[in-house]
Specification:
6-stranded antiparallel sheet, 6-stranded mixed sheet, 27% helix, single chain
């Protein structure tokens, strides 16, 4: 081989070797971060040690990223993970082989069990720093765990200790006679945690009085028997004639519950459990055998106890307080000294925090085309290459778009934040063409309404639109609405448009004088009628406007005689308008359509704590046609209203599909002034049918037309008026 070729060969070999080595290093880094991210989530949210509640998980994430990312192989990684766990979760075991349960149990069981109680996490959503207060994370035997039912201790009977045998607990129960949907209450009785056998013909509670019979066995010895009624919040039942019939060798004896309630030394606690689903409100006792086994890597395993023994002062085993304080100081000092020096570590820590929360708390994974593992790979591949906060902002935006959640978004308030400006022109997409819909700025009235927008700053209008669309999360209709809302946003002081109107193309250079808009209702006051009577016995009320309930109340004496009432929900309400529904209901309702997930370490998301509005009828009743107008900008609370109408059949919905996003927003605060928002609860229509992503589908769908835009007509309102008059 000639010297020149030999030199080229060695150069090629060097480059190839370096590339392979770099790829291997990058792969190891990904394994390192994935293992830490998995462990971080399980320990933070499900390991109930007191130390877990005392550590700052914000600082811990950054310090942990720094420690694990330098590991050159899995053995080094295991050592680093063990060192991170020791000060806060000493009972967590990490090894290169699967960990037998007996080994895990040997670390968490103290000698004198009588001195301890069991502690475990109970999550209703995930409580996060500076997040929504509706989501709760509490520990049994440490915090006052909230429930969605109320216990009413009723009475006690005392039996002679010699009385033994099978017994029947009988009681008369009647449901709320004013509830028109009394079809979702079920009854069961429990003796401690054991469910008594139901000897009745039904397990439903109705508006009729039914006598229920439940069968159990009496314990031996002296008996103090308590009777408690457990009922869902906001529900009403009446009970009568509770007693116990004991069947023994001496025949049958009947004992009535008449004495005042006395909870002392009760050997038998009977709970008459009335619930809105057949699972009932039974909390299974915590068990130390609840140990989560997690595979953190190809040959990396973790065993994480979900229940610990605890005294009044500490969980077992207690970590030395000096060691804990030293570790907390170390994580805080690293944040103070190094977070700006290593910005990539901060971004990777943001990845860890975000994914550990979304993995467990995001309730709509089944409505996406991704999963936590795929999302981690996507985020790591981009984040490791991001050079600055603007790059990372785009990465988070692309992540959010994969999750189809209209509430999901990213905010950044750092010093290098780019403030965009816009032009007050609304646009509409019809058959893949973008039209001028409304010109909101009077100084721009020369822009022809109904004209086609061909280009924006030299790019086709469609290309500009899809550049926005790719970073928006949610349903197609919400992403379209948001992308059109931000169509003219930019950093420069002006925007160049080319539009076509009646075959004539015109160019305009428009000043960007307005801040970019995050939200704008369709039902703007200048473009819809004033609240009140439109024509003979036809009324209109803009539910997104000012003082709408005051305006409804002004017309209250006339509305029962109206032929039709149109309620415009094309926007977001500025006030609580639920009182309106009292005039549309004929009886009380207790539908359950807001569902907060009961989060567990198995990540099943199959159990929820459900609630509703629990509204009842109010006079006067509105007898005429009830019409609600809808559009893609109707989101969240607006969809609660439309979903209530849809589910309970309280009116006819006319217009376009709503956003398809509802439920309380949760916030993930991150390093470097980033925040990620997402929906933390599942919400359906009031009848339980799905609305997420698909939106609330109108009964009468109205599509915009070029002719309608050009003439300035409100085609949705026009269709509603035609329906109202028929």
């Amino acid at each position: 081989m000639r010297p020149g070729r030999l030199k080229s060969f060695f150069f090629f070999l060097l480059i190839t070797t370096y590339s392979v080595g770099s790829a291997q290093t990058l792969k190891q880094k990904e394994r390192n971060l994935k293992a830490f991210s998995e462990l971080y989530g399980y320990v933070r949210f499900f390991h109930p040690s007191d130390e877990v509640t005392k550590v700052n998980w914000f600082f811990f994430s950054l310090y942990g990223v720094h420690q694990v990312m330098s590991a050159q192989n899995d053995q080094q990684l295991i050592r680093e993970l063990k060192a991170l766990m020791l000060p806060i979760a000493p009972t967590v075991i990490i090894d290169s082989v699967p960990i037998p349960k007996h080994k895990a149990l040997s670390k968490i069981v103290p000698e004198k069990l009588s001195e301890y109680k069991l502690v475990n996490w109970v999550h209703r959503g995930l409580a996060l720093p500076n997040g929504s207060a509706i989501y709760k994370s509490q520990r049994n035997n440490r915090d006052a765990v909230e429930t969605n039912y109320i216990d009413y201790p009723l009475s006690t009977i005392k039996l002679d200790g010699t009385i033994n045998g099978r017994y029947e607990f009988t009681v008369e129960v009647r449901g709320d006679t004013t509830d028109c949907n009394q079809n979702n209450l079920f009854i069961a009785a429990f003796d401690g945690a054991e469910r008594l056998k139901n000897k009745s013909n039904t397990n439903s509670v109705t508006q009729k009085t039914i006598r229920y019979r439940f069968q159990g066995n009496l314990p031996k010895g002296e008996k103090n028997i308590n009777f408690t009624l457990r009922v869902p919040k906001y529900r009403v039942v009446s009970i009568n004639k509770p007693n116990i019939q004991v069947f023994s060798g001496d025949g049958r004896k009947i004992f009535d519950f008449k004495e005042p309630f006395d909870a002392r030394n009760a050997s038998l606690n009977i709970i008459l459990n009335i619930a809105e689903d057949k699972a009932f409100y039974v909390t299974k006792p915590a068990s130390v055998s609840k140990i989560t086994s997690v595979k953190l890597g190809k040959k990396i395993y973790a065993s994480i106890p979900g229940t610990l023994y605890a005294t009044e002062t500490a969980t077992y085993p207690e970590v030395d307080s000096v060691s804990l304080m030293a570790f907390k100081k170390k994580t805080r000092d690293y944040w103070l000294d190094k977070s700006k020096e290593y910005p990539q570590e901060s971004r990777l820590a943001n990845l860890v925090i975000t994914l550990s929360v979304l993995k467990f708390a995001f309730p709509y994974w089944e409505d996406t085309k991704t999963n936590p593992d795929k999302l981690f790979s996507f985020l790591f591949a981009r984040t490791i290459k991001d050079n600055n906060n603007q790059d990372f902002l785009e990465t988070l935006g692309l992540m959010s778009a994969k999750l189809n959640d209209g509430h999901m978004g990213v905010s950044y308030s750092g010093s290098d934040r780019m403030e965009e400006k816009s032009v007050n022109i609304e646009s509409e997409m019809i058959d893949h063409k973008i039209y001028v819909k409304r010109v909101l700025d009077s100084s721009l009235k020369y822009i022809p309404v109904g004209s086609i927008i061909d280009s924006i700053d030299g790019e086709s209008a469609q290309k500009t639109f899809y550049a926005k669309f790719r970073l928006v999360s949610g349903s197609p209709q919400w992403r379209t609405y948001k992308s059109l809302l931000g169509l003219f946003d930019g950093l420069s002081d002006s925007v160049k448009l080319i539009v076509s109107n009646n075959g004539v193309r015109s160019a305009f250079k428009l000043p960007r004088l307005s801040p970019s808009q995050e939200y704008r209702p369709i039902a703007l006051p200048a473009y819809v009628p004033k609240d009140g009577q439109l024509s003979d016995k036809i009324y209109y009320f803009n539910l997104t406007g000012d003082s709408v309930m005051k305006n409804i109340n002004r017309s209250l004496s006339s509305l029962p005689f109206a032929k039709s009432i149109i309620f415009d929900m094309r926007g977001y309400p500025k006030e609580d308008i639920r009182a309106l529904f009292g005039h549309l209901l004929k009886c009380s309702e207790h539908s359950r359509w807001m569902h907060i997930p009961k989060i567990t370490s198995d990540n099943s998301r199959k159990d929820f704590e459900s609630s509703g509005w629990n509204l009842g009828p109010e006079l006067p009743y509105f007898n005429g046609k009830i019409i609600f107008l809808s559009d893609a900008c109707a989101q969240s609370q607006s969809e609660s209203i439309l979903g209530y109408v849809k589910g309970l059949k309280l009116g006819t919905i006319i217009g376009k599909a709503s956003s398809g996003t509802n439920g309380d927003v949760q916030t993930i605060n991150l390093f470097n002034d980033f925040r990620v928002f997402f929906t933390g609860a599942k919400v359906t229509n009031a009848d339980g049918t799905k609305s997420h992503y698909k939106g609330i589908i109108p009964d009468i769908i109205v599509r915009s037309t070029p002719a309608g835009l050009k003439s300035g007509r409100d085609e949705v309102l026009d269709r509603a008026l035609a329906f109202a008059k028929n």
